[in-house]
Write a structure and sequence with these properties.
heterotrimer; A alpha+beta (about 240); B mainly alpha (about 240); C mainly alpha (about 200); A: alpha+beta; two-stranded antiparallel ribbon; globular; C: about 200 residues; mainly alpha; 9 helices; about 0% strand
Chain lengths: ~240, ~240, ~200
């Protein structure tokens, strides 16, 4: 047995060494890491409208600079508040959904991206949603066609779902592809899209679940329902115009 | 003369003799971390529904296991017994965080893929189990080899289970990577297309294989097979 | 009180950490040869889960979250801090067991320190965060989860004690059979998933 003093000194030295090492490494890599993350997030948003990219390009083939330039020229970014009004002077990419989720509901703001391709006058509205999976947070970008009802693409991501099971929401392209063409309104009533265990029964409002990942799939359903609902006031205003 | 014998007895720093070789090969069979030592089962259940995550996990565990063994062994004479677990965990967690930060800097998509495993690596009992059982009492080089060996033994079982689960559960191999092979299934593009091929019309993917329970059965059967060949492992009790 | 009870029942039976989520498997399989050692380890897990859960809750709310004492979002430290709390609690348990029951200490061997990396305990804390429990709920979840783990290990230890007298093929005896039994128990527990005790209470 060592003396208490030795134990204390040992633990403190170890903590100090590790803390200094990790902090300096983090500081040294911070800027590049932030840029990498920004490009990664933007690729995820682009992926939601992949079908409508200029010249049929695929997101994975685009270089980092191309991604940034598409965002510069073809994207309109705005931030909306719970009543559906656009908040002045804010950009969608500056919104951290994880932080927004912790605020009281009336104070939250939501990012909105509007994509207009070069060749046509179409507009696509991309909204961000966030919820909980089995282990930790899950989130996604949902792109709507101009009717603000039909989903034209979706991408999902997660913090720590089980690889091969819950993580399939991100890794299995078939899961997000299933969302294409689904609708969120049934006879004018908001129903959102449901992830159905054992296979979709109505392909317009449901998508196939992932076997072995019921909790994550239910998390996606709940996230879509409450997440898209937040944009409803804004959608109503656009439709009236 | 006396000085000469002394140098002969002192082993070279990076010796690789018979003892060192057994450190690497033992965990592959006689002392396999999963089927004999019963370590690292949770992560084995979690990642083995697909082959690619299993391979990634195996590589990550080999790396973390080897280097945490090395560092723990270097510090072994200084670590106070009262706080040894926390110290071991700090070493493991630091190592994992260093890898995480470096990848974030170099290649963000790969970091995203790996970040999911981080919790699983830190709580993987193989790493801490080997630190407790081996690295705390052995020299650095041997501890390092022991770490590599145990990582390999773990990875071998992981990939075996994953191949069975993915093939029968999803009909594919290496899904989610560039070399995805679609072996058997109901859609075009599979090697054996069950809708077109009349002989295989009855075949459907086994959903049980996707559940964690299937990994329990497969590991149980692997233990059965292994012990039929390796009789000294048979549990008499 | 009703809510406390609901979460306890749900964590212990419906969402049993071992049999529904397959967490904490290593020590569960390795220390379930006899009911006696299983009992000791089960109690240790109840204690560690029951006590780390509220401590980790306090850390999460007061230190790591943005509204906490430091006013910074420190959630990237969550894993390390949670596991440090667990490690210190396990170290405490180890010292107590070593002092008062040396025979149990020897029987548990390496699996006592390995409770630290028992995924059930860290998993419980992560579940608690993602489900946004409050303090009392996290205590209920910790105790319920621990109790469920305790029951599961007692159950398999009892089965393993009985199955010793059955005619199992020699290479499958012991560990191999334990894996297969756990798989079967897990499938049986799947039928409980999705039951909501709160729904019964309100009817």
């Amino acid at each position: 047995m060592n003396s208490t003093r030795y134990v204390l000194i040992f633990v403190l030295t170890l903590t100090a060494v590790v803390a200094v090492m990790l902090t300096s490494l983090r500081e040294a890599t911070k800027t590049q890491a932030a840029l990498n993350e920004e490009i990664f997030d933007k690729r995820a948003i682009l992926k939601a409208v992949e079908d409508h990219l200029s010249g049929g390009a695929e997101v994975d083939d685009l270089s980092d600079d191309e991604v940034l330039s598409i965002f510069e020229s073809n994207f309109e970014q705005s931030v909306i508040d719970p009543s559906g009004e656009i908040v002045d002077g804010m950009k969608a990419e500056d919104i951290d959904m994880a932080k927004e989720k912790k605020k009281p509901e009336e104070e939250r703001v939501y990012p909105l991206y509007v994509y207009s391709p070069d060749e046509s006058s179409d507009k696509f509205y991309i909204v961000s949603v966030r919820g909980n999976g089995l282990w930790d947070e899950i989130w996604g970008n949902i792109a709507f066609e101009e009717d603000l009802n039909t989903i034209t693409g979706a991408t999902f991501d997660h913090k720590g779902e089980t690889p091969g099971l819950g993580a399939e929401i991100k890794d299995n392209p078939a899961f997000s592809a299933d969302f294409k063409g689904t609708k969120i309104y049934r006879d004018g009533e908001y129903v959102s899209v449901t992830v159905r265990k054992g296979g979709a029964r109505n392909e317009t409002y449901e998508v196939d679940g992932i076997s072995g990942a019921t909790v994550t799939a239910d998390g996606v359903t709940a996230m879509l329902y409450s997440g898209i609902k937040k944009y409803e006031p804004y959608f109503d205003k656009i439709r009236k115009k | 003369m006396a000085a000469e014998t002394a140098t002969k007895e002192k082993e070279p720093l990076l010796a690789f003799g018979k003892k060192e070789r057994t450190l690497l090969t033992d965990p592959l069979n006689d002392n396999n971390p999963i089927t004999v030592q019963v370590l690292g089962i949770c992560s084995a259940l979690a990642v083995t529904s697909l082959v690619v995550p299993s391979v990634v996990m195996a590589i990550a565990v080999i790396f973390v296991c080897a280097f945490s063994s090395l560092f723990t062994s270097l510090l072994r004479n200084y670590i106070p017994k009262q706080v040894r677990m926390i110290v071991q965990l700090v070493i493991i967690a630091t190592l994992v965080t260093v890898v995480e930060l470096t990848l974030r800097y170099l290649n963000f998509p790969i970091y995203k893929q790996l970040s999911v495993y981080i919790g699983l690596i830190i709580t993987n009992c193989i790493v801490m189990g080997r630190l407790e059982a081996f690295a705390m009492a052995n020299k650095p080089w041997r501890s390092f080899l022991d770490g590599v060996g145990n990582g390999l033994g773990y990875g071998a079982i992981l990939v075996m289970v994953a191949v069975i689960r993915e093939l029968f559960g999803k009909g594919s191999l290496f899904a989610g990577s560039g070399i995805e092979m679609k072996i058997i299934g109901a859609n075009a593009g599979y090697w054996i297309n069950t809708t077109e091929n009349a002989w295989f019309g009855w075949y459907a993917n086994n959903n049980l294989m996707v559940l964690p329970a299937a990994a329990m059965f497969i590991i149980g059967i692997l233990i059965w097979i292994q012990r039929s060949y390796n009789e000294k492992l048979v549990d008499i009790s | 009180m009703g809510e406390f009870f609901n979460i306890f029942i749900k964590a212990a039976f419906i969402e049993n950490l071992v049999l529904a989520y397959f967490l904490g498997m290593c020590s569960y399989l390795a220390v379930s040869k006899t009911v006696k050692t299983a009992f000791g380890l089960g109690l240790a897990v109840i204690f560690v889960l029951g006590i780390t859960m509220p401590i980790n809750w306090l850390i999460q709310e007061n230190l790591l979250s943005e509204g906490g004492l430091l006013g910074m979002d420190l959630t990237f430290l969550r894993l390390i801090l949670f596991i440090a709390v667990i490690a210190s609690m396990v170290q405490l348990v180890e010292m107590v067991v070593e002092k008062y029951s040396p025979s149990l200490y020897n029987a548990l061997g390496i699996f006592l320190p390995l409770i630290t990396v028992n995924c059930a305990i860290l998993g419980g804390s992560l579940f608690m965060v993602s489900r946004e429990y409050n303090l009392t709920e996290s205590v209920a979840f910790g105790l319920g989860g621990g109790f469920g783990w305790f029951l599961a290990i007692i159950a398999i230890a009892a089965i393993r004690e009985k199955i010793r007298y059955s005619n199992v093929p020699a290479p499958l005896r012991g560990l191999g059979m334990a894996f297969i039994i756990t798989g079967l128990m897990g499938i049986a527990f799947m039928s409980l998933m999705g039951i909501d005790p709160a729904a019964f209470a309100s009817n």
